[in-house]
Design brief:
single chain; about 180 residues; alpha+beta; archaeoglobus fulgidus dsm 4304 fold; 7-stranded mixed sheet; two-stranded antiparallel ribbon; 9 strands
Length: about 180
């Protein structure tokens, strides 16, 4: 899919939580051309298996769905080890998905952490294997981008705005969840 400059983007990140927390807050910021146009929020189970369905459900219920042309995530996890199947999001909502990280993602280390947690490891491994097969992974500037439904040139065009909206989503989620924002995307 080719996207135009200035399209509406949603950037989603989770707020801080503790291992004893049952759920984690996720905030999505909708914007374009440097303007924030709205926000959504929902909760996912900490280390659970509901992130993909909760994210898709929140977007389906949102008044922004028809306008959003790209979704950015801070990695493919929400609420600890709750995997977001970016390929399923792309297939079901027809929205390209870009998961940004500052460090090179290591699927083996992620699988080891999931195996140690013992929470739904088999299903999560299947999702991770599918994501690895069906998505691309490229270094773009100072980020690593795992992507589906979008080309590299479009990622390069959108990465600055997407990263800024992710930063804002992180600040809002952190501030709401803990009373004060801290850290960085």
């Amino acid at each position: 899919m080719t996207v135009k400059e200035g399209v509406r983007i949603i950037a989603l990140d989770d707020g801080p939580f503790t291992r004893s927390s049952e759920t984690a807050l996720v905030v999505g910021i909708v914007g374009r051309k440097g303007t924030i146009e709205g926000a959504i929020s929902f909760r996912v189970d900490v280390d659970g298996s509901d992130a993909t369905d909760k994210l898709a459900g929140a977007l389906r219920k949102s008044r922004f769905l028809k306008q959003i042309k790209v979704a950015f995530l801070n990695g493919i996890l929400l609420g600890g080890l709750n995997v977001v199947d970016i390929c399923k999001i792309n297939d079901s909502l027809h929205i390209p998905v870009i998961a940004l990280t500052r460090k090179m993602p290591h699927m083996r280390m992620l699988k080891d952490a999931i195996a140690k947690s013992g929470k739904g490891a088999g299903k999560k491994f299947e999702m991770l294997d599918g994501i690895e097969r069906k998505s691309g992974l490229k270094r773009v500037g100072k980020y690593y981008a795992r992507y589906v439904g979008i080309g590299e040139s479009d990622i390069r065009m959108l990465i600055g705005e997407g990263a800024e909206l992710l930063r804002i989503a992180h600040i809002v989620a952190s501030g709401v969840a803990s009373g004060e924002s801290k850290g960085r995307m």
